[in-house]
Design a protein that fits this description.
515 residues, mainly alpha, Growth Hormone, Chain: A, 2 domains, two-stranded antiparallel ribbon, globular
Length: 515
């Protein structure tokens, strides 16, 4: 095959589009918790619940958006619609921040904006990355480096977002939040505009055919009727099962709170119910062999442990934002760094450390001592626990309101970044290797479902952040100060790491033939 030396220009178009989308998402995320608490005067627990519901649903709607794109719209139209919908969502947040003194109107605009962001992300996220591979022939060796370049777009966007949006929005004055949201809106419009203008020219396969166009309706054989009918029945069963589980979860949580339905967390119920019904639907498929079921079982087990990782890791946009704003000394000389800037630390560290970790795995692999995928996941969880242990000792015996050095939060992000590099790329590779081809997209959806559940869980855990001297109880564990709060994540992540490490040998046997 004639292998071109460079990469197709379409890759760089997708790079720029993804960069601006991530700029929009992380720019808004850097300000969102601070906006709710400082401008709309939410208490930290309520703000955390809203944050968890939003970030949870962001990873749930791609299941719907991916289905619509595959069946009706195609990738291109879905990306444009998703990008414009998210731009509208960011603009509604801008309007909300313009009228933050009128709390009822500001809240209504904020929730409408969040809804548009959730809907738009559902169309955008599952479609843009799938187009990268389709720019190349099946046997093109440039694919791996192409995805690496594309992933750099994610990190460039998430690095710039807190710096720019934080600079104009996180000034210490509530009336300035609107400029951060407007910057996020402009970033999303730039991404949509660039993609719309150049997509027809550059988003093509090696033969020059357009990639991601509207699916053509082909004439199906009569033999296809039965499988489609069976699929429809299973889909209907999944919907009914999800609704029933949602209702049961809500009744249970309402009963716990002593007030049926009034305190029901319907969004949390929906996320957790979907995270149960979709995996059950897949693994009970009668066409699966026992080996395939075992391998899918490994994906489910790893995905379960990943929930604990991301629930603790995603405190970066929640409780750790409070900590950066309220109890971290951010003065560098005569300049006080905005709290939002801390959210740029992770992507900068990712770009810096990723080549080092790739070299480490290669070095160990050549000597036959590279850890298995489950053990790498366990190492990631252990590093997460270590990061929280580091900052817990940094705040031990510190009185409320006393600010600590930036060293503690910076150290936490450094250790967590190393944990992410052990866990995140390995997890995606694991799903790709273990999935039967006919279920690969659905199982990747299950992987993102675990992220959805984790983000919702993260919001709930952030609600235990200590405030106003109030003691909070999590499953019998008393959270009275920052040390207690951070140690909660040490225990949670550390326990998950030990359990996963102990059973990694068993999981490796279930994966036999794929590693």
């Amino acid at each position: 095959m004639n292998q071109a030396k460079g990469h197709p220009k379409g890759l760089y178009l997708l790079f720029v589009t993804e960069m601006w989308e991530r700029f929009s998402y992380y720019g808004m995320r850097a300000l969102f918790m601070l906006y709710m608490v400082q401008a709309l005067l939410f208490d930290k627990e309520t703000a955390s619940q809203v944050y968890g519901s939003y970030t949870g649903l962001v990873y749930l709607t791609p299941l719907i958006g991916g289905y619509i794109a595959d069946r009706y719209w195609g990738n291109r139209r879905s990306i444009v619609v998703g990008a414009l919908t998210m731009a509208i969502g960011q603009f509604l947040l801008f309007l909300s921040a313009c009228y933050f003194h009128e709390v009822s109107l500001a809240k209504w605009l904020m929730f409408c904006g969040l809804g548009m962001l959730i809907l738009g992300n559902g169309f955008f996220k599952p479609n843009i990355s799938t187009m990268v591979g389709r720019l190349y022939a099946a046997d093109d060796t440039r694919k791996d480096s192409a995805f690496t370049i594309f992933y750099m777009g994610v990190n460039v966007g998430s690095t710039l977002a807190p710096l720019i949006c934080g600079l104009v929005g996180n000034t210490g004055h509530p009336e300035d939040f609107k400029w951060g949201f407007l910057a996020a809106c402009i970033g999303m419009l730039l991404g949509a505009s660039v993609f719309s203008v150049f997509k027809n020219k550059y988003i093509c396969d090696p033969d020059g055919n357009p990639v991601g166009a509207v699916p053509t309706q082909t004439k199906r054989d009569a033999d296809d009727t039965a499988p489609r009918t069976a699929t429809s029945k299973r889909t209907c069963g999944m919907v009914i099962g999800t609704l029933l589980l949602t209702l049961l979860f809500s009744i249970d949580w309402s009963a716990t709170n002593g007030n049926y339905f009034h305190n029901a967390d319907w969004i949390g119920s929906l996320i957790y119910a979907t995270a149960i019904t979709v995996p059950l639907l897949i693994i009970t498929d009668k066409s699966l062999t026992r080996i395939e079921q075992a391998r899918i079982g490994v994906i489910y087990i790893i995905a379960f442990f990943v929930i604990f990782f991301w629930a603790a890791y995603e405190q970066a946009g929640a409780s750790l934002t409070f900590f950066a704003d309220e109890q971290t000394d951010r003065h560098i000389g005569g300049w006080e760094m905005p709290a939002a800037y801390f959210q740029s630390f992770n992507p900068i560290m990712i770009v810096t450390l990723a080549p080092l970790f790739a070299a480490i795995w290669s070095f160990l692999g050549k000597r036959g001592i590279e850890p298995s995928s489950p053990r790498k996941q366990a190492i990631g969880l252990f590093l997460l626990a270590l990061g929280y242990l580091f900052i817990a000792f940094g705040v031990k015996d510190v009185e409320p309101g006393v600010k600590v050095s930036m060293v503690w939060l910076t150290g936490l992000y450094l250790i967590h970044t190393m944990g992410e590099l052990c866990l995140a790329p390995i997890g995606l590779s694991l799903v790709y290797k273990l999935s039967p081809v006919r279920f690969s997209s659905l199982l990747m959806g299950v992987w993102y479902l675990s992220t959805s559940a984790a983000n919702k869980f993260a919001g709930m855990l952030s609600g235990y952040y200590p405030e106003n001297g109030i003691s909070k109880n999590f499953l019998g564990y008393q959270v009275e100060n920052l040390f207690d709060f951070f140690m909660l994540f040490v225990f949670m992540s550390g326990t998950a790491a030990v359990i996963l490490f102990v059973f990694s040998g068993k999981l490796q046997k279930m994966m036999k033939g794929t590693e």
